[in-house]
Design a protein that fits this description.
Layout (H helix, E strand, L loop, with lengths): L1 H10 L2 E8 L2 E7 L10 E8 L6 E9 L3 E3 L11 E9 L2 E2 L3 E2 L5 H4 L6 E6 L4 E6 L2 E5 L5 E3 L7 E8 L7 E7 L3 E4 L7 E10 L4 E2 L6 E4 L1
Antiparallel strand pairs: 1-2, 2-5, 3-4, 3-6, 6-7, 6-8, 9-10, 10-15, 11-12, 13-14, 13-16, 16-17, 16-18
């Protein structure tokens, strides 16, 4: 009996947490302390906060991975959710390990915009596109994150004659086409952009840098 109890404790999943990027919501966990238990499988359930019954996630029932995609199960982005995971090894089942409460709208990480650069002789024109959620419109296209948040774009420019870290904010607003003018010909400029959510006071990571010589 003691060994059974020990194994239960040793295989119990650790650090169960939701991670979310643009509403792609996944539940992650780490294996229990019995790292040598190779045959361990995991079972995932989820529920909306306040509900009494847990739902099984069929695709994550008896899996060996340490991640489970709950994007479709957590699509009501204002609702708080919980996830939980238990492990089984050698016919022994652990207790459930519970995540913290997760509210997609508050906690998702919003990605940077997609930036397309077009240049003329003394100016750079940027076309910005909001990141997209995994949720689809009736016609099949993915709904942009601007449908869920009041997003601003922040555009930064690096003049390569100056210090690499010297990023200058040249635009903040909702425009999708930005023109940066009065630049010097023959100079290399790099541009990057972020999305910013004023309501949550949160910025995305930078978009990948795009450099051009005018």
């Amino acid at each position: 009996v003691l060994e059974h109890q020990d194994l239960q404790d040793l295989i119990k999943p650790q650090k169960v947490e939701f991670r979310s990027l643009n509403f792609n919501n996944t539940l992650h966990w780490q294996p229990g302390r019995a790292r040598e238990a190779r045959d361990t499988v995991y079972f995932v359930q989820y529920k909306v906060y306040g509900q009494s019954t847990w739902q099984n996630k069929d695709d994550c029932w008896g899996i060996q991975k340490h991640v489970c995609d709950l994007t479709n199960e957590t699509s009501d982005i204002q609702e708080p959710y919980y996830g939980r995971v238990k492990a089984a090894s050698a016919g022994v089942y652990s207790n459930w390990s519970l995540s913290c409460r997760f509210t997609p709208w508050r906690e998702t990480v919003i990605g940077p915009p997609t930036v397309t650069v077009v240049h003329s002789n003394k100016s750079i024109i940027l076309k910005l596109q909001a990141p997209r959620s995994p949720y689809k419109r009736k016609r099949g296209s993915n709904i942009p994150m601007t449908n869920y948040y009041d997003l601003l774009y922040q555009v930064f420019i690096i003049n390569n004659l100056l210090d690499e870290q010297h990023r200058v904010l040249v635009y903040e607003g909702k425009g999708k086409v930005i023109k940066i003018e009065d630049l010097r010909p023959g100079v290399s400029y790099c541009v990057m952009a972020k999305t910013y959510v004023p309501l949550l006071d949160r910025s995305s990571a930078y978009s990948s840098r795009q450099c051009i010589v005018l």
